[in-house]
Known about the structure:
The protein is of the alpha+beta class. It is 28% helix and 25% strand.
Amino acid sequence: MFQAILAYIHAWVDYGLALCKMAKNREIGWTTIDRKTGEIKREQQPLMKKIKLLILFSPVMEWIDTTRWFRHYMHEKANMQGHKMTSPASAQMIKSFVGFYNINMNDFTPSDIHEYKTFQEFFTRRHKPGCRPICSPHDPTRAIIPVDCRVVIYNTVPKARALWIKGHHFTISNLVADEKAGHTWDSGSIASFRLSPQDYHRYHCPVNGTVKWWKQISGDYYGVDPIAIRSDIDILTNNARCAVCIDSEEFGKVLFVAIGASEVGTVVFNEDFKTPGRKVTKGEELGMFEFGGSSIVVCFERDRIVFDEDLVKASERLYEVDVEMGMSLGRAGKA
């Protein structure tokens, strides 16, 4: 009996020390799988941000979502943060930000942090040519990851709702604010990409094709942390966003939706993707987010994509996968 009690106490002490180590290393974010190494790890995140998210998206606080005050507060905060990050004084934040998140500046141009005049300029930094190779660049039957991020994928929208996206009113029609257009993907597949503040915030086209239509949708600026996405608040269909439909010979109609979040003032699409009839290629820069976290949802028509097996298995286990822009997302399914 005494040995069992000692073992029990020892286990709890080990657990407490592990938590202390995680807090010290700031590894208190969501659990993810590194696609390159297969390692399961926790995302780095400021402690106060974690506590704030747990409070804001708890069942007790859900009532707040019914008031205009909360939405107004989030919108005003996003605007204030956006303006703050464009001031010359904001450049002083870059060094500590790079240190906190261990950002490898050798992947970016310019790589010298002192060459950025504002934090916003740093936040929208570009990759060095060649540091994110495109998977099978000459094979149009291969779709790619559009951004450095964490991804979950599901073969049907109902499965995504059951396991990951918990908002009461999440449908593709609500996502694009168009009942008729949204039905195209009602029985299709969905990939959800979450960006954190430390990530590269330019996003790229996942497939070859032709721009069919695009639209900008106004909305709120809730956070897109998994705590928020898996709450009952309709994050993805309430936040400000831009959507483009790409008509692909290999993948059918592909919907790409860039969704702003807390502290993101603007979702920007490049002109080519706002021009119906324009030919676009996978890997081509589609647009960018300004300061903050953010999210992208890409939808495919039913059976038009076969997602990579490692992404499928991780998502079924409710793990996000750390991926880089240009990696494989999946191959074209039957026409």
